Amino acid sequence: MRSSKFCLNPAGDTPSSCRLFDVIVSHCVPVIVSDKIELPYEDEINYKEFSVFFPIKQALVPGYMVTKLWEFPKERWLDIWRWLKNVSHHFEF
C-alpha cells in the first residue's frame, strides 16, 4: 500500500472493518465506493479533503474508475495526500 497512490475501499457489510484505517495509515489516498457510507469520526474529520468518492453506479461501469484515477490532476492528488498525512495519526492504534 505504501507505494500506491490510490487504494480501493469498497463499502463492506460491517462498520467494524479496519481496511480504511490501514489505507489511511499507509498514506494511500482512499478511493471510497459507496452511495451512503458512515465513516469513523465523520463529525470531526472531513473525508472529502483526503479521499476520492465514487457512487456504486459509476464504479460498476467497466474502466470508469481507472480512467478517472489516471486522469486525476497531480496537484490535486498532492493536496489530498498532504491532508491525508495530517489526519493519519487519528487512525493509528
Automatic annotation (TrEMBL):
InterPro entries from the UniProt entry: Exostosin (IPR004263), Exostosin_GT47 (IPR040911)
Membrane-protein topology: Single-pass type II membrane protein
Subcellular location: Golgi apparatus membrane
Key word Membrane present: no
Record's keyword annotation contains Transferase: yes
Keyword terms: Glycosyltransferase, Golgi apparatus, Signal-anchor, Transferase, Transmembrane
Domain of life, per lineage: Eukaryota
A GO CC term attached to the entry: Golgi membrane
Chief subcellular location: Golgi
Exostosin GT47 domain segment(s): 1-64
Pfam family, one: Exostosin_GT47
Gene Ontology MF terms: glycosyltransferase activity
Family: Belongs to the glycosyltransferase 47 family.
Protein name (Swiss-Prot/TrEMBL): Exostosin GT47 domain-containing protein
Annotated organism of origin: Camellia sinensis (Tea plant)
